[in-house]
Amino acid sequence: MRLAYAASPNLILFASFIAQDLTTMTNSFFPPIRTLMGPGPSDVSPRVLGALGRPTIGHLDPLFVTLMDEIKGLLQYVFQTENALTLPVSAPGSAGMEACFVNLVSPGDTVIVCQNGVFGGRMKENVERCAATAIMVQDEWGQPVDPEKVREAFKSNPKASLLAFVHAETSTGTRSDAETLCAIARENGALSIVDTVTSLGGIELKVDDWGADAVYSGSQKCLSCVPGISPVTFSPRAVERIQNRTHKVQSWFLDMQLVMGYWGGDSKRAYHHTAPVNDLYALHESLVMLQEEGLESAFQRHRRNHEALVAGLEAMGLAMAVSPEWRLPQLNSVLIPEGIDDASVRSSLLNDFNLEIGAGLGALAGRTWRIGLMGYASNTANVIACLSALEAVLAGQGYSLPTGAGIDAARQQLAA
To answer: What pTM, to 2 d.p., does this model score?
Structure first.
């Protein structure tokens, strides 16, 4: 052991840091321990946090290149794809979204964009910033994208070359039929861009089987990793479109032809940017954990805890905002009862119980709460703790509800 320390000065520094009196670190930031049950980020496993703190190595170190290959293979497993162009963008899900649009959309293109929540609107913004035309297919917030409206949009706009939609709309807790929508795009000779930020790892997603062409996600939701990484995957059809572009991609950083020089499968990697090495350790660990559990088991866990939470909420007299067949098990949208102060409830949950839930967005602001059961946070203890805390806070605001009914209903559901 003495020899190991003598050869590793970093270990000596680390040991001295641990030994010092933490109370003297007046300028350091020490966050409280929260239970994150909002729309993201979700709770991060201690295994993932442990991976984050491993020694940093260079982003071109041969060992790190090996890790990059492993991450690519694990992402292919989670996306259920064999796409060669599968990688983690070194930025959050919004950058993954932009990467898909700037690489596939050129000036003058026509893109059909589906909107049934906030994030369809962001897709429209991306299309317009690419100097293309967005044909909007609008559906009520809390309802899935209507495939018939999409078919009609293609009939009315035969030059449309892309279809963009959100698989799991984070702002409403609603799932759309991605398989059908991708099929409609292909029937019309168009490529599909699919937002799976909230769905990846939480519900079924089969990129290859469904024929999705450009798919992006985020690390901080059902993957239970730290925020700041956006997994993406592009089909061979999408890669062909990228390679045949006549205009430069408007973003240098997100140009997939440049990024692939670094993330490509060849043994020699071309420098593109300094990858977030420690964040990628964390992503790798979260993907390993998901592979160990198995996708189907993860989906079943999310479904089981969702059903228990819903049983408890309904026993408390609360109603869900989305019909059962389109609800996301990982993101539960709950209608706020009449006379209850939205912000006050969330503030009490945070300050008194260290429990975070989300507010409604856009058209649902002030009308719904969004309760996440994502990844590591999707467990029985969180379901019971959330119901207990919510009961106490609602009772404190004068909301009449049967004491303990929510927890009893959840436990019965879990035992079924």
So the answer is: 0.93
